[in-house]
Amino acid sequence: MASAAVSYARENQKRFLNELKDLLRIPSISTLGEHKDDVRRAADFVSSELRRIGMQNVESISTKGHPLVYADWLNAPGKPTVLMYAHYDVQPPDPLNEWITPPFEPAERNNNVYARGAVDDKGQLWMEIKALEALMNSGNGKLPINVKVLVEGEEEIGGESIAEYVRKEKAKLKADFALVCDTELFAPDLPTLCVGLRGLVYTEIEAVGARTDLHSGMYGGVAPNPFFALIEIISKLKDAKGRVLIPGFYSKVKAPNAAELKAWKKLPFNEDHFRKTEVGSTALTGESGFSVLYRTWARPTLEVHGMPGGFTAPGAKTVIPARASAKVSMRLVPNQNPGDILKRFKAYVKKLTPTGIQTSVKVWSKGPACVVGTDNKYIKAATEAMRDVFQKDTVFIRSGGSIPIVTDFQDVLKIPSVMMGFGLPDDNLHAPNEKFHIPNFYRGIEAICLFFEKL
Amino acid sequence: MASAAVSYARENQKRFLNELKDLLRIPSISTLGEHKDDVRRAADFVSSELRRIGMQNVESISTKGHPLVYADWLNAPGKPTVLMYAHYDVQPPDPLNEWITPPFEPAERNNNVYARGAVDDKGQLWMEIKALEALMNSGNGKLPINVKVLVEGEEEIGGESIAEYVRKEKAKLKADFALVCDTELFAPDLPTLCVGLRGLVYTEIEAVGARTDLHSGMYGGVAPNPFFALIEIISKLKDAKGRVLIPGFYSKVKAPNAAELKAWKKLPFNEDHFRKTEVGSTALTGESGFSVLYRTWARPTLEVHGMPGGFTAPGAKTVIPARASAKVSMRLVPNQNPGDILKRFKAYVKKLTPTGIQTSVKVWSKGPACVVGTDNKYIKAATEAMRDVFQKDTVFIRSGGSIPIVTDFQDVLKIPSVMMGFGLPDDNLHAPNEKFHIPNFYRGIEAICLFFEKL
Fold first, then answer.
1. What ipTM did this prediction achieve?
2. Do A217 and B399 touch (CB under 8 A)?
3. Which residue among A299, A309, A356 places its CB closest to the CB of B284?
4. Nearest one of A222, A209, A194, A190 to A325, comparing CA atoms
5. pTM to 2 decimals?
6. How far is B423 from chain A (nearest CA, A)?
7. What is the pLDDT of residues B127-154, one digit of tens each?
8. Minimal Cβ distance to B283: which of A225, A284, A356
9. pLDDT tens digit sequence for A45-65
10. Domains detected in chain B
11. Helix (H) or strand (E) segment spanning residue B419
């Protein structure tokens, strides 16, 4: 690791962390309209820094939604070109009362930085930018490879704008491979590359019964109740054993191959420890006959995230609401087509809708699963860089989450993605007290420097 | 109707209505802690007026919850004593965006006054007070019978304080009968007395799965989801045909007698018209083999009012919430004991709770059903007074709603209640755009005057 870039990165760790904290203070919650200006502020923060460190052609690209940030540096003839991806938007912070320190006031505890977006994905975005800075400064204003950077602000809401932009700007974005920093290490101190992601179809089933809210005394027993209808419907979408009951849901599912399944069995993983330390429940659920890793990485699921409507404040209100809805999502695995699954879902919801109720299905986001190959020189260089930083062999895992852009890079730009992530399993993604382990922030910067230098 | 009190009431209609509007401007929402002072303001408004019109021993009685207001006038020796009841608290106004004019800014349209609490129950409370004023003024400071007034501010949240007070102050509250103005006319211009009410057990099932909110990508397929657990449980509490499945739920149900059922069939009621005009849904639901009136008046039900937890804002958040809850209530009919039903409900919920989830049941309110006899002189005088005001024969109905105090008056004070109400079926109780038909406000005042004069 005799790398000048790594030395530079080590000398500037404190400053890098303080800059990250400034970015974390911006509540760039992409799904909430009232934070639109904050999302733009985060985009501006990113493009200013790209400009400052010497990247060229920096631009903030307006979209129907939140802006994309593009930058490049293409002065390494004969060297490969990377397309670096990350996102600067974050999930909503609720429930607020469960945060130990406020979600947009970064706080350090036990060598972690706590804030919404710390690990997902501002911390990892900042690793990419700081690696570029370190390479640029230690290389007399030159990078070891050609670099294109594309950062989005809609990852948490489906990434529609970047998907459209990738389709439109194939030539501009052309690269040899993509670097995506939005995943995690399998275990602390275990160098990990992610080679598979689940897809996602996120819907909201809206149910309408009476014309107006009704008193449950006067009308209870005769008026259709949209909540009860949603409950009837959803109870028939998945059984108590975790099997999704939508007709044809599993028909296209492609299982992992034997070698991959065998490798998963060698990973340091104990289901009971996972249950106790990560989930914290009295039992795990889901399909029997599949391991926890199999269930979360390579089996599709269906979840309910919230049921807006009716009376939700503390206390009693005897209302039969006129309307209610349920946020229901499905995680998809390779070969399940999101459009096909959505069609089956809609048809089944319609079929299950009881008399007196009208339902409709709104789609909030939709993207397929993705598995990337491990037999290219980029994955190989990344594997070595990770090993150098951690001094351990790198493992290949999948993730149950969804990064639709990886599929787009593969299908539209025809390039493989290196998913090099530095989160930890207990980093509380999308939950209160999200954190990023500060040593992993620094390791990420070093690994990216070494990775690019190896190419 | 050559009554001086009625003449006085007619001369002062405009003023009476303006006073009511002042009371309606106070957002006395008993279930919301932040409105505690408003609830007290409404209580003060009522006690001031009782004092002003010449009632004696007016007092505001502090309770663990919201204050009771008591007043009396007991200077009619040899005459019967009435205990007049109403409530000054109201339901929350949400959903706010469906109100045509704001809920606490009373507005007149089409001879109705629109506001939260207009008919339930401030308008009817004001009828009682204004009838007393009219009788007092036209009788040279004397009332035709002895009067005790007891007004509460917790009717919408279970009425615990008044129930306790009635048990404690049996002697003070002793009367020959009670007058309860909190029900409705069966149809416009049809004089109606209510002789039966359903009971209520209102609960919140709280479900807990993981220790913290989890990302549905990482954990979907293995982490227990409290929403799905609630859905599984509630889907088994009532079937699609409206039959409650809690073991033993129907075992004590007492059906109405043949004469009462026969009288209901003669009421001017068309189920299809009711569906179209009142409910506004494409179909009615509930147990087959029972008419709409039977289902709402004399059959128990189970309803879901809201499911707090998770993500409910517009957009997508891929969260498996650590906890969620469901507001579930049951309406009870004669002979169903609320304590017994609650016990059965809790046991069944526990039994239905899936692995990995802990549930607990919080009780927000609990009261039995009640049927009052029609063979006493008070009901008879009320029947005549209503006929005189409306110039039509009075009908006896039940209500599907719950007024637990009526049961307490019967069981604790051993007195019958006359439920004389002037709401209309389309008055939007507990819903947006609640209203009170202004001519019914005036008729109510006159009917109470005549009723008391007849005794």
1. 0.82
2. yes
3. A356
4. A209
5. 0.82
6. 12
7. 999 999 999 999 999 999 999 999 999 9
8. A356
9. 999 999 999 999 999 999 999
10. 4-197+369-454 (3.40.630.10), 199-253+300-367 (3.30.70.360)
11. strand B417-419
